[in-house]
Specification:
By secondary structure, this protein is of the alpha/beta class. It contains 13 helices and 14 strands. The longest helix is centred in the middle third of the chain and has 39 residues. It binds pyridoxal-5'-phosphate.
Length: about 400
């Protein structure tokens, strides 16, 4: 296969070598972590080690980490009216989310549709804190769910400020940190979160593993999604995915140690990619450029560009980019994130997301810019098809 450049790290990252080694070590063990014999205890030890590493990644306590099957499941588990605290056992009345949340939050967990409210963002895709303050002021016992960084634009949300507003109104805040962790500092207490979601495959672990982290044992989810054998202290039943959890722990350890270096590496390359992009196409729009963004994400559009065509054209040039918007069925849906930022459908329909990772090299950025030069030239001649692009 010819050399390719992978620019879709927000969809999923490469598996870290340490995570692969942890998988192999876990696969060599036969025991069920709930068994009391030596084999069982060995599997349990892997899980508890991983719990420590995942907790350390977000500066939480291991006893506050609950492993799940994904970030999606952790979001679903967190979004319930039945979150109790030491002082409040009454159900949470309403769920407030921003208009740019991931589908797994937009689905609302265990809240009824009419008990949910979406809060606006500004044109750079940042939560409107005044709208949050107004909404929580009229909502008794609200639960608020906000992402720390948006998966499409990379725009970082004012979570700590939001948490202060929510707490002052007697509410709780859940933070979806799936895209942020490993890329920016993600300290549980500094964020002011009550609950926080993580996903292993965005930091170099396996797909199909996640975690819900809580502030302290004062936060209790009274209606777990999956009941049964009492694993994960009754919050998430089912024999644990020992392999996936061990790999999550190993990936978390590397992500914590190397975050600052990897972030600086990605930012330098992302900046040179954006400089190159603007030099080739001065009229190109980089969404959220006026806000603080993840160091690895660029969502852009250029006149005449159609997302599907561009993604395929890049793919033919050996470059994996994505639409940024949900496209689980293979068909690009209009982006609710760009719509919330007030962008007109024609602009939003042309958005392409380029997301970098720790393995991205300068040669990848060069390959991307060479491909973009060709596509931009085809677009400027009004040749919008893939054939036109590849023929240039
Ligand atoms: N939240 C955000 C912001 C995401 O980007 C994703 C995945 O893309 C998820 C949640 C879901 O995580 P998972 O793929 O582990 O279900």
């Amino acid at each position: 296969m010819p050399e390719r450049s992978y620019f879709d790290w927000n969809a999923t990252t490469a598996l870290r070598a340490q995570a692969r080694q942890a998988c192999e070590a876990a696969l060599a063990l036969a025991g069920n972590p709930s068994s009391v014999h030596a084999e069982g205890r060995a599997a349990r030890a892997l899980i508890e080690r991983a719990r420590e590493e995942v907790a350390a990644l977000v500066a939480a306590r291991p006893s506050d980490v609950f492993f799940t099957s994904s970030g999606t499941e952790a979001n679903m588990l967190a979004l319930t009216p039945a979150i109790e605290t030491a002082d409040e056992k009454q159900p949470r009345s309403r769920l407030l989310i921003s208009a740019i949340e991931h589908a797994s939050v937009r689905a609302g967990g265990r809240f009824a549709r009419d008990a949910m409210e979406e809060l606006p963002v500004d044109t750079d895709g940042r939560l409107d804190l005044a709208a949050l303050a107004a909404a929580v002021a009229k909502t008794p016992r609200p639960l608020v769910s906000l992402m720390l960084a948006n998966n499409e634009t990379g725009v970082i949300q004012p979570v700590a400020e939001a948490a202060a507003i929510v707490h002052a109104a007697g509410g709780l805040i859940h933070v979806d940190a799936v895209q942020a962790v490993g890329r920016i500092a993600c300290d549980f207490d500094m964020l002011g979160a009550d609950l926080l979601t993580l996903s292993a495959h965005k930091i170099g672990g396996l797909k199909g593993v996640g975690a819900l982290v809580r502030r302290s044992d004062e936060i209790h989810i009274a209606d777990p999604l999956i009941r049964g054998g009492g694993q994960e202290r009754g919050i998430r039943a089912g024999t644990e995915n020992v392999t996936g959890i061990a790999a999550f722990g190993a990936a978390a350890a590397v992500a914590r140690r190397q975050r600052a270096t990897e972030a600086a590496h990605m930012l330098a390359l992302r900046n040179s990619l954006e400089t190159g992009l603007r030099a080739i196409s001065p009229q190109a729009v980089i969404f959220g450029a006026g806000a603080e963004r993840l160091p690895n994400t660029t969502l852009f559009a250029s006149e005449g560009m159609k997302t599907e065509t561009a993604v395929i054209a890049f793919d033919l040039e050996g470059i994996a980019v994505s639409s940024g918007a949900a496209c689980s069925s293979g068909k690009v849906q209009p982006s609710h994130v760009l719509a919330a930022m007030g962008l007109s459908p024609p602009v939003a329909r042309g958005a392409v997301r380029v997301s970098l990772g720790w393995d991205t090299a300068e040669s990848d950025v060069e390959r991307f810019l060479n491909a973009w030069r060709k596509l931009a030239s085809a677009l400027s001649k009004g040749q919008r098809g893939i054939d036109d692009f590849t023929a240039v």
